[in-house]
């Protein structure tokens, strides 16, 4: 036993060595486990941060142009577009600072595809450089920007913010400020944050496609471009835009480099050669015929790439070389050739079998008349609806491939966004113009489909009890979002609003309540039970016959919804004159105020409905009444630039200098927003040219602060005080210099503005320009004799915010359609 034990005894050195190895392995194991834990924690934190960042960015703007970019880029033909990318104009734009390049082109020239190539080229060159920002916008005639300029700037802010290595603190702060309160940032806040994010880059590229498809060329497009040029003046920003040849848009780019986009013949030939495989087999066996097709189509497209595609697709069904050559001989170029090509396609649609033809007409009806772009699943649900059925049978959903193929090339699907649309806006123009030939009853068909959907039994339970359940309802019923917002528009356009099946729907209180709740939630992002009645909805959509039918059934014209609004308030807001007349004749209260204190008169003024304002004033509405924020109707009209409405109100004797609760006169509001025609009109009627608000701002100070050069010149010519100061001691020159408005600074200097004037912090116009790095403004000031001060009073961040923010004020959030 002892001898055995001796054999088992280890030497002390061996024991120490074993102990050390055990300790070392335990330490390694602990370190390994610790590393795994840390990595897991890091991954969890990164996942959490990524999720939080995505939530913030999506809150900032729901627009995702990246899906459109991916779709357009995927359609690019290899080795095409090089003529543009290698052009001296594009190379100058991409390499030199603060460049603008305008690229107009005829319809169908291939502008959008070329834009996707440009954007890809930018990412190839600069995608890995963190100090260079890239943002872009694809305008589309189908898309409506409910919040106007704010939506566009928010999209740019989102793209540039997510390009940073980490989400900028100012964007996080903006989210934190608003999210918990359930509010949204103002245009001013979006604009200031966009400036802040752009300043983090050494250079920013902004590319905008199809300015001509902006919903309002004369207003939204103008102010958007003005803002872009203002950003370019302040920052190292390069801007490129495409458009059709529209005089109003071309005028905005006067004096800037221009490069016309048209289908390059070599690109067209390359596309055709790659696509000949879709033609009948006899084409593939004849090199001569292939060359003939390529040559004839290239010769007859007149610079329109789209026409090459349409001509090629028209040859797909030809049964012999002779028939194909006859078709080739009929091709022509020019814009009128689109009509011929689209007519041929619709003739092919009509020659299909009965069920295929019916499906094609339904698809084209929906896509042509839809109030917004539809997803593939939404359109599948729409086509699956069986009129007067109590529910949707999922077994009735058509196949997407069939929906596309029966339309003979007129329809395409964006794979990334899952949007189904016409191949080009020229197809939309053609189909709308010839709708009476191809689908004369489209609006009635869509209206009845919508109302059948809204009448499904699943909505008979009434409004959702929670926001989560409402989201579930929308997710489970794909077409519900569209139908709640648009059934009335299609019904109004079809003139069938007095049909029994419509009355049956609107007399169902639960289904109407469910519909209005969803409409308000989707339209205004407000989860409440809106308490809108059938008469409210009829007035909102301007369904004149339905309004009359409901009034004859003794529905109360003065019943208020959850926002305190009457049917008359909604009809006035939406500009439906006939519905307004009917409601007034049946005793609607013209002066009934909602929860924000707004009457139908104020809503009509806010939306610029001049005829309705005139009607209400004739009916003795109180035109000196105020909302809870103190805004009168003349102020609303002036602030929004409604010249004809301002003239009407002044002609009716409304006092031109009535101030709101911020001390702002109509003239100041018009000048602040750059509405020169309204400014001129108010001045001609005796408005006080130097009237100040409670922050000491005059109309001239406001116009200079926002860079409205034409308004500044107009006010100066009319005698505005060039040295008037706000409560912080800033003159118009200081304000213009602080905000980098070079043209306004030059104008003020030419008019004799005092270079030596200083604000309450001891800062001059040169101090402000230097502080923000506006080199062009500094050069102007130095040329005029400005000198750097040896000492300047330091300004902390709070001082700077206060000094720069007095013209921005918070107003009550109203339930507005703007």
Automatic annotation (TrEMBL):
Q: Name one Pfam family in it.
A: NPHP3_N
Query: Does Repeat show up as a keyword for this record?
Result: yes
Q: In this protein, which residues make up the domain named GPI inositol-deacylase winged helix?
A: 353-433
Name the domain of life this protein comes from: Eukaryota
Q: Which InterPro entries match?
A: Ankyrin_rpt (IPR002110), Ankyrin_rpt-contain_sf (IPR036770), GPIID_WHD (IPR054471), NPHP3-like_N (IPR056884), P-loop_NTPase (IPR027417)
Q: Which SUPFAM superfamilies match?
A: Ankyrin repeat (SSF48403), P-loop containing nucleoside triphosphate hydrolases (SSF52540)
Q: Which UniProt keywords apply?
A: ANK repeat, Repeat
Question: Where is the Nephrocystin 3-like N-terminal domain positioned along the sequence?
Answer: 80-244
ANK repeat residue intervals = 530-562, 563-595, 596-628, 629-661, 662-694, 695-727, 728-760
List the protein's name: Ankyrin repeat-containing domain protein
Q: Which organism is it from?
A: Talaromyces proteolyticus
